[in-house]
Amino acid sequence: MNKEVLLSELQFKAVRSSGAGGQNVNKVASKVVLNFEVDKSLGLSESERSLLKEKLASKLTQDYVLILSCDEDRSQVKNKKIVVKRFFSILEKGLHKSKVRKETKIPKAVKEKRLHAKKVMSVLKQNRRNPKL
């Protein structure tokens, strides 16, 4: 993953924010929308692209475009920084490969302890029975 190349591939669009904010909302385009085409990215290897398509399937469009938006701040520059940071964190999570779980063997001592406990309980229950006459 080459961050400089990825940054150059990002497409930004400034849009008017929705919601409360008074007259400032009506005249300032502070919301930032980020578009990233996973399929056409040169900053990712082929294996990274396929991994992202698989792991981020719910966040991608049918054309494999990742769309993120941010309108948390009144400043367009701050929103752009926030959305870029969010983009890279999503990419890192998508490219993270979890370790393969290795099954551990049950130690011999643990098995013997369990069998011994079963025998003790069995003897206890046998002693509770009525004697046969």
TrEMBL record:
Family per record: Belongs to the prokaryotic/mitochondrial release factor family.
Domain Prokaryotic-type class I peptide chain release factors: from-to ranges: 16-32
Domain of life the protein comes from: Bacteria
Alphabetized NCBIfam families for the sequence: PRK09256.1
The protein's name: Alternative ribosome rescue aminoacyl-tRNA hydrolase ArfB
Gene from which the chain derives: arfB
InterPro entries in alphabetical order: Pep_chain_release_fac_I, Pep_chain_release_fac_I_sf
This enzyme's EC code(s): 3.1.1.29
GO molecular function, one term: peptidyl-tRNA hydrolase activity
Species: Flavobacterium chuncheonense
Entry keyword ATP-binding: no
Keywords from the UniProt entry: Hydrolase
Gene3D superfamilies assigned: 3.30.160.20
